[in-house]
Write a sequence for this structure.
C-alpha cells in the first residue's frame, strides 16, 4: 500500500478491491462526525476526501445522509425561512409543506431525492383532488427549500428545478359589474365598516393592507394613501402579525378618490364616538379599521361580515379579494392604462396585470386592433402611391 499524501485522511484498499477512506466533517447541526467515502480507485477516494476536508476547513457542513425531506423542511422553516421570507409567506409555505409535500415525499432522503420523486409528489398531491394551482404551489415550495439546501451544500443539485411544474388554466376572474357594486354599496351604507368596503373597491387594496392601514398612513391634504404594512393571521399559535407589504412595489402611495375621502372622514368621526363610549376600555393602536373597542379586526370576521352584506344586497357571492379585481375591471372600463392600474395595485410586473386582466381589457384590445388596421392601411397607400 502506497503512502498517503498529506491531507488525504485515511485511505486503503478493501479485500473486494474497492478503495475507501474517512475523514471528519461538520454535520448540519454543527457537530462533527467521521465520514466514510468509497471509490473504484485511490485517486477517486482521495478527491472525495479532499473535497470534504476543504468544506470542513471553510466551515461548510457536508451533505448528510441523515436528512430526510421532512427533517430538513423542519430545519429550513425554523432556522432559515424566518430571515428569508415574509411572515405570511412562511406560514403559507409551512402549511403546504405539512399538508402536501411531507405526506408525499417526506420520508425520502434529502440527498437521494430525484426528479422522479418530484413527479411522484405531483401525482400524489393531485390525487387529493386539489386544483392544478395547488400542485404548482407545492412544487414551488419544494423548489425554494431545495435551493437553500444547494446553497448550504447539503445537496449538489435542486432536482425540483429539473422538473417542469404542472401547467393549469388560470380560473377566469369574473368581478362584479358596476350595478353589483352599487347594490352592495347600498347594502353596506349603514354598516360601521362601510368605509373599508369603499376603499376596497375604489383603491384595490388587499385585505391585509386594509386591516393594517393606520391613520398616519393617510394624507388628506394631498389625498394620498401610503401602503406601508399589512395585518394577517398566520398559522396555528402565531396569531395576528403585522408585516411588510407583499413586495417592494406593494409598498406604494396611491391617490384617494373623492368617494374614499368622504367615507374615511365620516368613519373617523364615528370611530371617535366609539372611542369615547369605550372610555378606558379603548385599545389605541392607530388602526383605521378596528373593532368597537379599538382592537384589530380578525380577517375571518371581516369575511363573514362581507358575505352577510353580499347576501343582503342580493348580488353574486364573490371572494373578498375579488373586490380588488372589481376595482381593476372598473379602471379598465374607463380606459385607464394598464401601467397605471399596475402601479395602483402594486403588482411587481406589468405582465402580472395584463395576464390577470386580459379578458376584461376589451377596449385596449380594440384600440390595438384599430391601430394595426391603421398601420396596414397606411402601408397599402404607400405601396399604391409608389
Amino acid at each position: 500500500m502506497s503512502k498517503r499524501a498529506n491531507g488525504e485522511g485515511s485511505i486503503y484498499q478493501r479485500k473486494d478491491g474497492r478503495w475507501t477512506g474517512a475523514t471528519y466533517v461538520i454535520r448540519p447541526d454543527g457537530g462533527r462526525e467521521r465520514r466514510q467515502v468509497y471509490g473504484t480507485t485511490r485517486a477517486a477516494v482521495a478527491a472525495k476526501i479532499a473535497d470534504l476536508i476543504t468544506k470542513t476547513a471553510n466551515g461548510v457542513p457536508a451533505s448528510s445522509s441523515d436528512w430526510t425531506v421532512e427533517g430538513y423542511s423542519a430545519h429550513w422553516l425554523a432556522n432559515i425561512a424566518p430571515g428569508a421570507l415574509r411572515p405570511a409567506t412562511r406560514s403559507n409555505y409551512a402549511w403546504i409543506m405539512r399538508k402536501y409535500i411531507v405526506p408525499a415525499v417526506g420520508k425520502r432522503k434529502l440527498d437521494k431525492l430525484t426528479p422522479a420523486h418530484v413527479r411522484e409528489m405531483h401525482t400524489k398531491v393531485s390525487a387529493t383532488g386539489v386544483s392544478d394551482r395547488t400542485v404548482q404551489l407545492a412544487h414551488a415550495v419544494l423548489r425554494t427549500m431545495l435551493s437553500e439546501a444547494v446553497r448550504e451544500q447539503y445537496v449538489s443539485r435542486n432536482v425540483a428545478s429539473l422538473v417542469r411544474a404542472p401547467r393549469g388554466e388560470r380560473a377566469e376572474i369574473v368581478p362584479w359589474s358596476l350595478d353589483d357594486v352599487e347594490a352592495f354599496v347600498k347594502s353596506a351604507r349603514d354598516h360601521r365598516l362601510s368605509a373599508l368596503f369603499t376603499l376596497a373597491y375604489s383603491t384595490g387594496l388587499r385585505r391585509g393592507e386594509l386591516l393594517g392601514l393606520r391613520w398616519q398612513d393617510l394624507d388628506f391634504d394631498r389625498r394620498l394613501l401610503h401602503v406601508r404594512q399589512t395585518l394577517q393571521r398566520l398559522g396555528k399559535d402565531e396569531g395576528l402579525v403585522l408585516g411588510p407589504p407583499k413586495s417592494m412595489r406593494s409598498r406604494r402611495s396611491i391617490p384617494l378618490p373623492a368617494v374614499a375621502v368622504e367615507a374615511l372622514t365620516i368613519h373617523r368621526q364615528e370611530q371617535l364616538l366609539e372611542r369615547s363610549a369605550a372610555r378606558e376600555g379603548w385599545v389605541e393602536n392607530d388602526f383605521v379599521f378596528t373593532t368597537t373597542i379599538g382592537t384589530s379586526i380578525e380577517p375571518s370576521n371581516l369575511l363573514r361580515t362581507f358575505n352577510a352584506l353580499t347576501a343582503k344586497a342580493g348580488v353574486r357571492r364573490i371572494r373578498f379579494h375579488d373586490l380588488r379585481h372589481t376595482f381593476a375591471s372598473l379602471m379598465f372600463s374607463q380606459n385607464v392604462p394598464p401601467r397605471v392600474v399596475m402601479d395602483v395595485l402594486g403588482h411587481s410586473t406589468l405582465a402580472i396585470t395584463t395576464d390577470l386582466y386580459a379578458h376584461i381589457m376589451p377596449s385596449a384590445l380594440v384600440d390595438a386592433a384599430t391601430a394595426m388596421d391603421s398601420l396596414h392601411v397606411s402601408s397599402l397607400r404607400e405601396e399604391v402611391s409608389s
About this structure: The beta strands are 10-13, 19-26, 32-39, 218-219, 224-226, 230-233, 240-243, 253-255.
